[in-house]
Design brief:
5 helices
Protein backbone atom coordinates (compact mmCIF):
# COMPACT_ATOMS: atom_id res chain seq x y z
CA UNK A 1 0.00 0.00 0.00
CA UNK A 2 1.38 3.38 -0.84
CA UNK A 3 1.48 6.40 1.42
CA UNK A 4 -1.60 8.10 -0.12
CA UNK A 5 -3.78 5.04 0.44
CA UNK A 6 -2.58 4.76 4.04
CA UNK A 7 -3.36 8.42 4.69
CA UNK A 8 -6.79 8.07 3.07
CA UNK A 9 -7.59 5.10 5.32
CA UNK A 10 -6.41 6.96 8.42
CA UNK A 11 -8.50 9.98 7.44
CA UNK A 12 -11.57 7.76 7.05
CA UNK A 13 -10.96 6.21 10.49
CA UNK A 14 -10.66 9.67 12.07
CA UNK A 15 -13.85 10.83 10.35
CA UNK A 16 -15.69 7.78 11.69
CA UNK A 17 -14.32 8.41 15.20
CA UNK A 18 -15.44 12.07 15.01
CA UNK A 19 -18.95 10.96 14.05
CA UNK A 20 -19.06 8.40 16.89
CA UNK A 21 -17.86 11.04 19.36
CA UNK A 22 -20.51 13.54 18.25
CA UNK A 23 -23.19 10.85 18.53
CA UNK A 24 -22.06 9.93 22.05
CA UNK A 25 -21.93 13.56 23.19
CA UNK A 26 -25.40 14.15 21.73
CA UNK A 27 -26.77 11.13 23.58
CA UNK A 28 -25.20 12.15 26.90
CA UNK A 29 -26.58 15.71 26.59
CA UNK A 30 -30.02 14.42 25.65
CA UNK A 31 -30.10 12.07 28.64
CA UNK A 32 -28.87 14.87 30.92
CA UNK A 33 -31.61 17.23 29.73
CA UNK A 34 -34.34 14.62 30.16
CA UNK A 35 -33.00 12.92 33.31
CA UNK A 36 -35.81 13.98 35.63
CA UNK A 37 -38.49 12.93 33.13
CA UNK A 38 -36.74 9.61 32.50
CA UNK A 39 -36.32 8.90 36.22
CA UNK A 40 -39.87 9.80 37.23
CA UNK A 41 -41.36 7.65 34.47
CA UNK A 42 -39.25 4.59 35.25
CA UNK A 43 -39.97 1.45 37.26
CA UNK A 44 -37.77 0.64 40.27
CA UNK A 45 -35.29 -1.64 38.41
CA UNK A 46 -34.94 1.02 35.68
CA UNK A 47 -34.38 3.69 38.33
CA UNK A 48 -31.56 1.62 39.83
CA UNK A 49 -30.02 1.14 36.41
CA UNK A 50 -30.31 4.87 35.68
CA UNK A 51 -28.68 5.79 39.01
CA UNK A 52 -25.85 3.33 38.29
CA UNK A 53 -25.41 5.02 34.89
CA UNK A 54 -25.05 8.45 36.52
CA UNK A 55 -23.19 7.89 39.79
CA UNK A 56 -20.27 5.97 41.19
CA UNK A 57 -19.62 4.91 44.77
CA UNK A 58 -23.17 5.55 46.01
CA UNK A 59 -23.55 5.20 49.78
CA UNK A 60 -26.45 5.50 52.17
CA UNK A 61 -25.80 7.68 55.19
CA UNK A 62 -28.65 8.22 57.62
CA UNK A 63 -31.18 7.25 54.91
CA UNK A 64 -29.68 9.72 52.43
CA UNK A 65 -27.84 8.93 49.21
CA UNK A 66 -24.28 10.28 49.09
CA UNK A 67 -22.68 10.01 45.66
CA UNK A 68 -20.15 11.14 43.09
CA UNK A 69 -21.18 11.65 39.49
CA UNK A 70 -19.39 9.54 36.93
CA UNK A 71 -16.77 11.44 34.98
CA UNK A 72 -18.86 11.92 31.84
CA UNK A 73 -21.82 13.23 33.85
CA UNK A 74 -19.56 15.50 35.89
CA UNK A 75 -18.31 17.00 32.63
CA UNK A 76 -21.91 17.69 31.59
CA UNK A 77 -22.53 19.33 34.97
CA UNK A 78 -19.44 21.51 34.62
CA UNK A 79 -20.60 22.55 31.15
CA UNK A 80 -24.02 23.43 32.57
CA UNK A 81 -22.39 25.51 35.33
CA UNK A 82 -20.30 27.31 32.72
CA UNK A 83 -23.33 27.92 30.49
CA UNK A 84 -25.38 29.16 33.45
CA UNK A 85 -22.68 31.65 34.44
CA UNK A 86 -22.48 32.92 30.85
CA UNK A 87 -26.26 33.32 30.66
CA UNK A 88 -26.32 35.34 33.87
CA UNK A 89 -23.75 37.76 32.50
CA UNK A 90 -25.92 38.43 29.44
CA UNK A 91 -29.26 38.39 31.30
CA UNK A 92 -30.78 35.12 30.04
CA UNK A 93 -33.06 33.26 32.46
CA UNK A 94 -31.47 30.26 34.14
CA UNK A 95 -34.53 28.90 35.97
CA UNK A 96 -34.01 25.41 34.53
CA UNK A 97 -30.54 25.32 36.07
CA UNK A 98 -31.46 26.66 39.51
CA UNK A 99 -30.71 23.29 41.15
CA UNK A 100 -27.09 23.22 39.99
CA UNK A 101 -25.57 25.37 42.76
CA UNK A 102 -27.08 23.04 45.39
CA UNK A 103 -25.74 19.80 43.90
CA UNK A 104 -22.42 19.76 45.83
CA UNK A 105 -24.44 20.25 49.03
CA UNK A 106 -26.44 17.08 48.32
CA UNK A 107 -23.58 15.14 46.75
CA UNK A 108 -21.44 15.38 49.88
CA UNK A 109 -24.22 14.89 52.40
CA UNK A 110 -23.69 18.29 54.03
CA UNK A 111 -27.45 18.66 54.39
CA UNK A 112 -27.30 15.90 57.03
CA UNK A 113 -25.04 17.93 59.33
Amino acid sequence: MDRIQTLAMEMEEHSRADHDYKTTVGTVLSVARRSREIFEGAELPEKRQFINFLVQNPQLKERALIFELKRSMNTVLELAHYSASKRKTIGISTDRLSWLPRLPFYRTGEYLR
